[in-house]
Amino acid sequence: MSEQSESTQNTADRPFDSKAFLAQVTKRPGVYQMYSKSGDVLYVGKAKNLKNRLASYFRRTGLAVKTEALVQRIADIQVTVTGSETEALLLEQNLIKKLRPPYNILLRDDKSYPYIFISDKHDYPSIQFHRGARKRKGRYFGPFPSSGAVRESLNLLQKIFRIRQCEESFYRNRTRPCLQYQIKRCSGPCVGMVSQQQYGEDIRHAMMFLDGKNQSIRDELASQMEQASERLAFEEAAELRDQIISLQKVQEEQHISGVDGDADILACAISAGAACIHQLFVKSGRVVGSKAHFPKLALEAQEGEVLAGFIGQYYLQSDGHPVPPQLILSHKIEDGDCLVEALQDLRKRKATLSHSVRGARSNWLKLAKTNAEQQIQLYITNRQNIHSRYLQLQDALALEESPQRMECFDISHSSGEATVASCVVFDQQGPRKADYRRFNIENAVAGDDYGAMREALSRRYKRLKKEEAVLPDILVIDGGKGQLSQAQDVLNELQINSILVLGVAKGVTRKPGLESILRLDEDQELVLPQNSGALHLLQHIRDEAHRFAITGHRARRGKKRNQSLLEEIQGVGPKRRKELLKHFGGIQEIQRASVEEIAKVSTISRVMAEEIYAHLHQD
User: Fold this and answer.
1) Strand partners, 131
2) What pTM value is reported for the model?
3) CA distance 79 to 26
4) 203 and 288: one domain?
5) What does each C-alpha distance from 469 to 434, 439, 463, 472 come to in angstroms?
6) Mind listing the pLDDT tens digit for each residue in 434-448?
7) What is the CATH number of the domain that holds 490?
8) Structural contact between residues 598 and 604, judged by C-beta atoms closer than 8 angstroms
9) Quick one: 98 and 61 in the same domain?
10) Tens-digit pLDDT profile for residues 464-508
């Protein structure tokens, strides 16, 4: 198995296609790295919404001079998806410190992470902002992603626990309470307004909270918020809601900064005949970088085989890369013991291979899996790959010209409820999302996929014919003879004979993803090899139609039932919805939360938290 070069090396001879790139970028939070033609990193940034942030660089007007200069030098952009905006900020800082990109230096300093510090040498210790070497005796909490996050946390803790934040010189010289006491931000230990025992209890509660071991404060605020709502004191309830949200941010787990240790995390994703291995580099417990690889596949290769081949070429060759003490893999590989022995011989120390991990390592692995899935979608929609696959489809079907436009339909419903048909359109540039259409099926019998397909096709092509709009060269149907005959009947009724109809069916293995038979009519079949670019193109458009149909079905089902997003999730009943809203303060904060944060709710298991997170992040 040979490895292809990074995309930064493939783009040196052509301008960066921002339109095609932005069409496929996720809306999730993450970090982006901009590269020059020579492969050097120009800029590292983070975003709450990667698609919106990256689109802002390519607008026609309103760019600063420096930004225009940066955009003119861009040859490639790599994205790394994270679990939250906070994680993106931490990874961004790690990458900036390591890579020092030229367009970041003037905008960002090289300071260390800030902490919250509580001394253990004073009867009435203060809670303070700290940055730099941790030499003073006491407890340090952090690191926090920014000084703003620390100061916001200190302000909140001051409100809740009324712990002093003044300097020692100010504290020792007080003869009467200061303004902080008057506004109930301090309990007044400087003049004996609180006992040492009570103050010590407040300090203990604050430390327990910062350790993430105490939920009672948030539960109490949630109860107060409910009581305020019942009294119709909505302004007070809103303030309590904001406090709950702030507490959630303080206690948010940081997966970018985890346990100690060095490791490489390798996640493999395979789609439409292509593979991506996304590699995360962890140093001293922090993710310091990532890299995407796109190895060529053997026939019907599985993820474990791809990972094994990659490890051999990347680490074990004479000019291979340094072997870390841990390699954490997304899939189990065969002959792992032999590979471990070879790695240890090369490293001269212990090395391990793991695929089932917990805690911070599990979070790293999930992050790598998410990025592998994102990168493979970007790769298969690359303009050069799309063009090559169109040419292979032309050869496979013996067409005089390469197809310029294809359409694919799919049906989605839940036991016949809220049936939706999707129509996706591909051209020589890849997915043409502006031309996508959905059809709410009203006339077909519930659960009748043939009737639903007939209705969708009739509505689509009646309109195109009436408006004299562009018709596709190829119509792709996911299914066998039945679905194919429905499409052909509709086109015959409309007297449209310029469209080639293809049915994509499974091969002898009947495994999803291993479709290899093209049905041209009821009696004619064409079997394509598994490594065929033409087959991969058809799999891609079929998968996109399936995704678009499911998304539309869920939206229609939720609207029809007049339910909230939480009510659409199976297993999340009234009690769990109430606990989630009490815990987070609102649906937007639930959407912002990671799986680990959702699982902290007393009635939500880890498995249920994953289902909730997946449902709220369907894009």
Assistant:
1) 114
2) 0.45
3) 9
4) no
5) 15, 18, 8, 10
6) 899 999 988 888 778
7) 3.30.420.340
8) yes
9) yes
10) 988 888 899 999 987 777 888 888 899 999 998 889 988 887 544
